[in-house]
């Protein structure tokens, strides 16, 4: 027996043979998860790439419990969460979506939005909803963002720019150091300068807190610059998985070449299907 064998740490996230079909049996049937197997180690920062409709958001939504999967198993932090409702999983997960208007109440102030989150239990253990302590702590955190919001804690969130709102949403989502952070194209709706600011902030928070993260993006540059692993989705499955040194070596041109291969394969599939159709229909 090899006594030097060490047990590998259990992954923080594990998907085993996960399937999901929407509108099954109708003309609108789509199969965005086709037997996905995926392990994500604790502390990993994973970039999720893929063409439109390849299943990136569905992957994140399945982990967050936005819908029930058809088959398979999802484990999170050592627990089988496959049948847990979304609100129960939310205790372990922080999320930021593409739309800067989601996740916050636009007519309420920054402070009130954070107070509400505190009351909803997002900042458990802190009884400082609307207290002096919340204002002070929030003011410090917001100052660190360097986006000029520290003197605007009483301004309506709706009056802030998209970039400022996304920065705040990220702050809210990571305040309590979630076990898993899910970012779904969270800078796609921002102007380039704000997107760069929010990306820099994202990287800083993830590194500082050591957060396990899945980040969906269409930006090859972000994929190359950030994270330690890239998974490329295609037709409801993980087509490529680049990690460690391989990931660090990847350049935008390499990723574009992989996308081009996928596109060529799709064209070939389509022409084969056309041929079959013309032969048999
Ligand atoms: N709740 C849902 N109900 C019905 N269909 C859905 C649902 N969620 C996703 N889909 C469909 O599943 C497929 C995959 O969608 P998904 O949003 O995961 O793709 P994506 O890779 O994130 O694409 P994009 O880059 O365009 O956002 C699409 O055809 C989409 O319309």
From TrEMBL:
It is a peripheral membrane protein. One of its GO terms (cellular component) is plasma membrane. It is found in: Cell membrane. Keywords: ATP-binding, Cell membrane, Membrane, Nucleotide-binding, Transport. GO terms for molecular function: ATP binding; ATP hydrolysis activity. Residues 13-260 form the ABC transporter domain. InterPro entries: AAA+_ATPase, ABC_transporter-like_ATP-bd, ABC_transporter-like_CS, ABC_transporter_ATP-bind, P-loop_NTPase. It holds the Pfam family ABC_tran. Belongs to the ABC transporter superfamily. This is ABC transporter ATP-binding protein. It comes from Methylovulum psychrotolerans.
């Amino acid at each position: 027996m090899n006594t030097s064998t060490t047990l590998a740490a259990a992954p923080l996230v594990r998907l085993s043979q996960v399937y999901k079909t929407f509108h099954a049996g109708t003309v609108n049937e789509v199969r965005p998860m086709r037997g996905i197997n995926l392990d994500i180690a604790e502390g990993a920062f994973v970039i999720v790439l893929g063409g439109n409709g390849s299943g990136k958001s569905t992957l994140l939504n399945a982990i967050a419990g936005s819908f029930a999967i058809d088959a398979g198993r999802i484990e999170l932090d050592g627990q089988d969460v496959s049948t847990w409702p979304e609100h129960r999983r939310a205790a372990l997960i922080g999320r930021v979506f593409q739309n800067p208007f989601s996740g916050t109440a636009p007519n309420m102030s920054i402070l009130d939005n954070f107070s509400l989150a505190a009351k909803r239990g997002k900042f458990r253990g802190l009884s400082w909803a609307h207290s002096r302590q919340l204002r002070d702590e929030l003011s410090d955190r917001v100052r660190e963002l360097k986006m000029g919001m520290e003197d605007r804690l009483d301004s309506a969130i709706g009056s802030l720019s998209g970039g400022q709102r996304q920065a705040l949403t990220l702050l809210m989502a990571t305040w309590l150091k979630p076990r898993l952070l899910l970012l779904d194209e969270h800078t796609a709706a921002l102007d380039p300068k704000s997107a760069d600011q929010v990306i820099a902030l994202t990287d800083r928070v993830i590194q500082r807190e050591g957060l396990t993260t899945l980040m969906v993006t269409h930006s090859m540059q972000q994929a190359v610059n950030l994270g330690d692993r890239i998974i490329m989705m295609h037709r409801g499955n993980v087509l490529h998985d680049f990690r460690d040194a391989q990931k660090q070596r990847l350049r935008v041109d390499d990723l574009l070449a992989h996308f081009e291969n996928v596109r060529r394969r799709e064209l070939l599939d389509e022409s084969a299907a056309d041929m079959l159709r013309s032969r048999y229909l």
